[in-house]
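Request: Have a read of the protein record below and say how the chain folds.
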Amino acid sequence: MSRQIRFNAFDMNCVGHQSPGLWAHPRDKSWKYKDLDYWQDLARTLERGIFDGVFIADVIGYYDVYEGSNYHAIEQAAQIPVNDPLQLAAPIALATEHLGIGITASTSFEHPYTFARRLSTADHHTKGRVGWNIVTSYLESGAKNIGQGGLRRHHNRYEVATEYVEVLYKLFEGSWEEGAVQRDRDRRIFTDPSKVHEIGHKGKYFEVPGYHLSEPSPQRTPVLYQAGASGPGKTFAAGHAECIFVAAPTKSVLKRYVTDIRERIAAAGRDPKKVFIYTLITIITDETEEKAQKKFEDYKSYVSYDGSLTFMSGWSGIDFGQYAPTDVVERIETNAIHSFVEHIAGGDKSWTIDELAQFGGIGGMGPVFVGSSERVADILQEWAEDTDVDGFNIAYAVTPDSFEDIVGHIVPELQRRGAYPTAYKPGTLREKLFGDGPYLPVNHPANGLRDIEAVKRREAEAADASLPLKSVGA
């Protein structure tokens, strides 16, 4: 049995997502992102391919760093227009039985109290198949448009995120005890009031004194995804994430990242093998090498140079429009995605502006693997063995064709080699991924919040400090 490889589909409730310009390809249907049947059809395809899930990215704001304007973003549909991701959870769940649904939401723009209810609702509706991708956001335009004036500094955003998830853990794990909901018709008791508790959170950034509004969902805390690859992002991921996404342009960059993050996870007292790491790639495949290469050349003819640099400028915070195509990308400190600059300006090769635009034109900052099913399977196994990565977060060039090609060609080849699952495990998303129970593992920092004795001790301490913390029946 070969090492098992895992797949996620990387998408967004928008046009084109990571391949600017390819919306114009005659076979691309990403313009149907507004239609639920588009998402349900895609979900069924992914479930046939035993994908762990569909991971739905999101941004609040728009890309206006390139040439100091959002002109090219709007013209090329560079993640604008974009719709809300969380509303896709229910229709995708209705169309599938097993597929996980990863939803991106920002700790910078969503208040934890109301967001906790929205996330619990989605976990109920999907019968426990939801994950939350924790992001801190990187677009100044988003912060300005909700009245914040601008983004917090990068390191400070993770300080906010740490308290944010603490609030959610208290709501998800500690507010409602196991057995609180009784639905006892004879005694006319739906919920035992003594088993529902205020969380009494009063921190630096948030004050949330009360109860969680939702009863515990199948997973309580949905599966936790995180994509930060900067120093603070890796520290946060090591302490909290169950699945980690990275965009590494080369195998050597990926290997260093995986080694580093697994060491950090172990140092945080968690099992580094029970945290899955997925790296961003795009696959272009067909029945033969020749057909795959011809398809790749066809796709490249639709790439938008300005659209690609619109993304690159937005992700890095650097206006690449101010440089000549032959200029070399250099490290510049910005308030955007630090890992992007580290991987490009501090990586294994020097990149000119033109090379950066061409590289990012299909699939964003992940490599593009082109070839027959045998050739691509060889590459995937090589990357998994050489870097210790668990799986691949797959962006499309043209949708749904890119995913249908993978399900039709790559998945069967990997399965033939014993290197890919042939069926889903039963249960919630967390159970399907890790094979344990539906709740967070015992070595996760949120796990202890379900300890009712600890909850009662916090209530007693709060009472001594004259804080308004109590259970419903107190």
Notes: Residues 14 and 82 are 4 Å apart (CA to CA). The two ends are 57 Å apart (CA to CA). The first strand starts at residue 6 and ends at 12.
